[in-house]
Input
Amino acid sequence: MFALVLSGISCSGLLGEDEYFYPFQSDKDGKWGLISDKGNVLADGEFQNVPTNVMNGRFFVENVDGLWEIYKANENLETVGEEYKDIIEFIGNVTPAVKKGEHITLIDRDGNVKATLDKAEGKNIIRCRRFESGYAIITTEDGLSGAINMNGEVVISPKFAVLIPVAKGKFLAIKEKDIDVEKNEFVISFVDTKGKNVSDLKIGTGQKYVNLNPEASDFEHSRLAVSTKIDDQEHWGYVSFDKEVLLKPSSKIKYLGQIKGDDFIFSDGNNYGVRNIKGDVILRPKYDNLDWVTDELLVCSKSDGEYDLINLKGEVLTQESYQRILPIQFGGNLPAQISDNSWTFISHKGQEVSSKDMPDIFNLWLNRKLSDIESDFVDYDGILNKLKIEKESLSGFKISATPLQIVQAYNTLYRSIPTERVEDGHLMGTTPEDNRGCDRLELTWNTPGGIYYRTKVYYNGYLTQSNYYDYDVAWSNDKPTYVQSEIKFSDGGEKVGQLFKKIVAKVKAFGSVYKQNSGAVMVKVSDNLGYVVGRKTRRVMVTLINDSNYFRQYDISEFASENEQTESFEVAEEEATDYLEADSAIAEVPTEL
Output
């Protein structure tokens, strides 16, 4: 939507120990264990699935049911807490976690719930990021973000389109109103925990600065990595919160990497080197890639694909080159890959770790759970409210409405959805000419919680009619043949069943059950109206039908279990005669989202 680089802000938490454990395999087909950067084994071949790195004395392993369990990093490998659908590693003493079907909670290292993240200002909390500098970003059901402290208290109201903790209670923030998608421009604000602006910076195509890179910025010391564009080339430099130029954007700096102290990684467009904030070259750009280890050490990759550990003088500290070196910033020894099936650890002086008890390391991973997690709680009543299921209308579309009223209802629904959430659909014109030849209206959108909606209004004829001779177009007198809404869950399972039951209970109040099986229910509302509710693995479909022949012939066997017979509760008098064939154009209602 806009050019700001939002990913890549790194945060390496403290282990609270003097050893740093990594998941490893001692042989190709072996199970997984944990080994420290000093070569000491915590577990060898204990786990079928890859455990995470140890952080603050805890690590996680996914069990056979696909749920995460918490282990203490001790000799007994004790489990604590419960089973979680998702969890973030312990950067502090609490972390966000979520159990199946529940809200996100904050738990301590023993699995005790310290806070439940259910609502913020009356809105459902649907996402939470990891803690950084004592704060975590939450997102509510409307897609807006706020911040909580480690007690789970909301310290910044969820009102920002973008919110990122940067340093000492300061946040990078962008409000929806400050985003101009057409011009590709936006205003970045820096706010404190009271939401008070510290400073603003306008970024975008028509501005002095066209981009900002949070990863390359040093927010604690008011150094913002920004770029200008000259002859279609980005030139990077640094400005302060007050827009004072600290390092003028230069054609010699085509990319900025992470900054450490006064020094930062940069690219001249071909290779990587290091400069300082004054612009002095510390390491000439001659490396394929560079990553910081400490303020004085870097991992470099060379043109031959091998890796070395170097200092800021460019001196190679490793005695031999490696296939890979993980530039871990924990402070311990670095994992280094010797060959395709052999790993070791190297010190900050470039020496390999030697331990008589150190096993062979066939495979070693960096497996950290740092991504944000989503609530697994489903607000079924909220979904029902969105569907607006009534006796003669669905999703705001009345079955008796004129074509113009249907178009107006569609536009009302469209305007209620954030533009970036719409996957298929557009604002419709409200004249007959705008809708010439139109026989249906469809809108598909998603929500931040991983729920997808589709609403469709279908006509057996058209919304408009034309004069044969002069092609004048006018609204037709046709009514919708059916209105259909689908709800699709990204994971499905129990959620589908729960929503199905609630929708069925709702529509049963409008009439009598006509047919049903384990996956679908047909409810006859009147001689000409009927509801069909069906479910599949990840979705629920509800259809309001305005055609008696079409309703009677609707086949719900596709929703039945294998070898299940659909149960019929009514044999209408007209069913004893031959049916009129339903129009071929509507012989089958589409059932895939």
Observations:
- The radius of gyration is 30 Å.
- Residues 192 and 528 are 60 Å apart (CA to CA).
- Residues 380-586 form one domain.
- The chain has four helices and 49 strands.
